[in-house]
Design brief:
Blueprint lengths: L2 H17 L6 H15 L4 E8 L4 E9 L13 E3 L4 H9 L3 E4 L7 H10 L3 E9 L2 E10 L8 H23 L18 H11 L6 E9 L1 H29 L5 E6 L2 E7 L3 H16 L6 E9 L5 H20 L5 E3 L10
Parallel strand pairs: 10-11
Antiparallel strand pairs: 1-2, 1-6, 2-3, 4-5, 5-6, 7-9, 7-10, 8-9
Amino acid sequence: MDGDRETAGYAAVADLLTRVEQVIGVEELVFLSASVALEVLGAASASVSRFDAEAGSVRTLVNVGAPGPGETEHPADERYRVTDFPNLLQVAEHQQAWSLQLEDEDVDSSERELLESLGKSAALGCPILLGGRLWGELYVTRTAADGAFTARDRAVSRVIAQAIALCLGRLRNRDELRELVYIDALTGLGNRRLADETLQALCEDPAAVTVALWDVDGLKTVNDRDGHLGGDRLLREIALLLSEAASRLPQAIATRLGGDEFCLIAPGVVDEQLSRLLPDLFARADALAAGAGVSCGIASVAALRGEAEVKALMRRADDALYRAKRAGGRRQVRDRSRPPDSEP
C-alpha cells in the first residue's frame, strides 16, 4: 500500500467496525466484511468461510469480486478439506494469517492448483477467532497485475477478522447463531447432542456405520503438571487430530462427548481407511504432551434401525475402549462381537 491507499484502507476498516453494529444476520455480516476486504486489500476476490471442525473442512459462505470458474456469490456447498491444503491446516492448528504467490518456490501443489484454477496469482488467508477458537477464515486473492500480499496486508486482514468476530459475538449473544447448539465450546467439534442426533438420523436410512470412541490417556497427569490450561490445550490438539480423521472419511463427523471422551461417527464401510489413519494419528497424539496419548474402541454395525441398536453400538464401542484402557492404553481395540441380528 502507498500512503494514500493505506490511509483509505484503515478508514474503510474503521467504517466496517461501525457498520457491523447494525448487521442483523450472519449472511449480511460476511457479505459486508468480504466486500470491505476486497476494497481495502486491493484484491481480485474475497471469501469468508466457516470452519466445520466436526467434518475437518471449511465451507465457503460468500464469494465477492471476480470469483473463479464454478464459484458463485452464495455457494450452496463449496467445501475444502483442511488436510488437502497446508495453509488451511496452519490456520486450524496455529491460528495464524498466511500469504503466498505462485512464484514462491515452496508453494504446495494443491495451493498452486487452486490458484491457477481461479485464474489468480497470490492468496492471503486469515483466521476468524470467536471465543479463542477458530470460527472461520477470510480468504482473498490477487491477479499477477495486483502484486503479492505483504505483512501489512496480513495485519489489515487481522483487523477485519476481529471486526467479524466482534459482530459474531453479538449475534451469538442474541441467540442468532443456532448452530452453536451443536458445537463443543472448548474444541469446536460437534457436541454430544450432534452425535446423538446424527446416529438417530442414520436410523432413517439404514446403512453400515462405524463408531470410534477416543479417550485421552494421561489428561490428569497433564492437568497436574501443566494446569488446566495445559489440559485444555491438549484436548484442543486431540480434537484437531480427530477432525483430520473425519475429513478423510466420507460423511464422517467428529464430536466431543464430554470430558476427555471423543467420538468419530463414520457412515459406510470404513475399516480399511481407519486402519490406515489411526496408527499415524496415535503416534502424533503421543507426541503432543509428555505422558499423554489416546485409547480407542471401535465398533461397526451393518445397519442402524432404531434407538436400541444405537445404544448397542455405542455400548460395544465403549466396551472395546475399556479393553484398550485395561491393556495399558495408547492403542485401539476393535469390537469383534456380532450384533444379534447381523447376517453370518
